[in-house]
UniProtKB/TrEMBL annotation:
Keywords, comma-separated and alphabetical: Oxidoreductase
PANTHER family: 3-HYDROXYACYL-COA DEHYDROGENASE FAMILY PROTEIN, LAMBDA-CRYSTALLIN HOMOLOG
Protein name, per record: Lambda-crystallin homolog
InterPro entries in alphabetical order: 3-OHacyl-CoA_DH_CS, 3-OHacyl-CoA_DH_NAD-bd, 3HC_DH_C, 6-PGluconate_DH-like_C_sf, 6PGD_dom2, NAD(P)-bd_dom_sf
Recorded family membership: Belongs to the 3-hydroxyacyl-CoA dehydrogenase family.
Location of the 3-hydroxyacyl-CoA dehydrogenase C-terminal domain: 192-267
GO annotation (BP), single: fatty acid metabolic process
Molecular function GO labels: L-gulonate 3-dehydrogenase activity; NAD+ binding
SUPFAM superfamilies named among the record's database cross-references: 6-phosphogluconate dehydrogenase C-terminal domain-like, NAD(P)-binding Rossmann-fold domains
Domain 3-hydroxyacyl-CoA dehydrogenase NAD binding: 8-188
């Protein structure tokens, strides 16, 4: 496919993730067609995106080199799938996290696009071999798993199907880099991918520490937000270890490796997230931040403001 044809991307699904992907792609100058099978939803998504772009421009946090008006002009909405897919070189699916729904969507897409069009799923917990099991040509299939919200958190995990062609991984990595994301490539599929496996390990031990009466919900969150998270916002665990010993990673393990193994061997089983003890942890969290929509929305908006500021700081440094 010539580079002149590689300017149109179709986003399937107009929810939060679909809107976020659309904003990311138009920030890189791509024409984006948003499709939703519910009449009028894709058009409503553009109205919401217009509002967000204006707010971002006013806050000097708009991504890319185009103005909000120029980016908005790259967006179009469709209720007809065939029309939405016309001319696209890349399709980003963002529908419900239900296997059967995603499989059906990709069957419909494959019937309507050429053999060179890349089919990408935003799934966060379904492995590619399941998502694309009903696609005939699986060599052009890939998972592009973003972190919520993708506009502020740039990481995207690229996870191949066992049959995914190398050039498809390369092209997707190039695209994500061009639009300002930070793509990482998994060499093969695994349940939970990389980010959610690391996150699950943190969740499990944090839950155990609270459950066993070692620390409170409030304080375990501070361990991350005012401790580990401060440096993890800029460097990862491997570099952290490398920098925390005079002679690098090997020296670090010589000094602390036995202690790390001892701590790991003391970990208990996977916690029960649904039993009686779990209810106590949930209640403790709800006392800090009530679970009604008003309080949750306020905290989400705070989270996004802080992520926006952090993204700016990282960009400037």
């Amino acid at each position: 496919m010539s580079s002149s044809n590689m300017k149109t991307i179709t986003v399937i699904g107009s929810g939060l993730i679909g809107r976020s992907w659309a904003m990311v792609f138009i920030s890189g100058g791509y024409s984006v067609r948003i499709y939703d099978n519910q009449s009028g939803q894709a058009a409503n998504a553009i109205t919401e995106i217009k509002k967000q772009l204006g707010e971002l421009e006013e806050a000097h946090m708009l991504r890319g080199e185009l103005t909000a008006t120029q980016q908005l002009a790259l967006l179009s909405s469709y209720d007809d799938l065939a029309q939405a897919l016309e001319g696209a070189f890349f399709v980003q699916e963002c529908v419900f996290e239900k296997l059967e729904v995603k499989q059906s969507v990709f069957q419909d897409i494959e019937r309507l696009v050429g053999k060179d069009v890349i089919l990408s799923s935003s799934t966060s917990c379904l492995v590619p071999s399941d998502v694309f099991s009903k696609v005939q040509n699986r060599s052009r299939c890939i998972v592009s798993h973003p972190v919520n919200p993708p506009y502020y958190v740039k990481l995207v995990e690229l996870v191949p199907h066992p049959e995914t062609a190398g050039p498809v991984m390369d092209s997707t990595h190039t695209l994500m880099t061009k639009v300002g994301q930070a793509p990482v490539c998994l060499k093969k599929e695994i349940d939970g991918f990389a980010l959610n496996r690391v996150q699950a390990a943190i969740i499990a031990e944090s839950w155990r520490l609270v459950q066993d009466g070692i620390i409170s919900v409030k304080d375990i969150d501070l361990v991350m937000s005012e401790g580990l998270g401060m440096r993890y916002a800029f460097i990862g665990p491997m570099e952290t270890m490398h920098l925390n010993a005079p002679e690098g990673l090997e020296d670090y393990m010589q000094r602390y490796g036995v202690g790390i193994q001892r701590v790991l061997n003391s970990f208990g089983p996977v916690p029960d997230f649904f039993g009686k003890e779990a209810k106590g942890i949930i209640n403790e969290m709800s006392e800090l931040i009530p679970s009604d929509q008003q309080h949750l929305t306020e905290r989400k908006e705070r989270r996004d403001r802080l992520l926006m500021s952090l993204a700016k700081l990282k960009k400037d440094n």
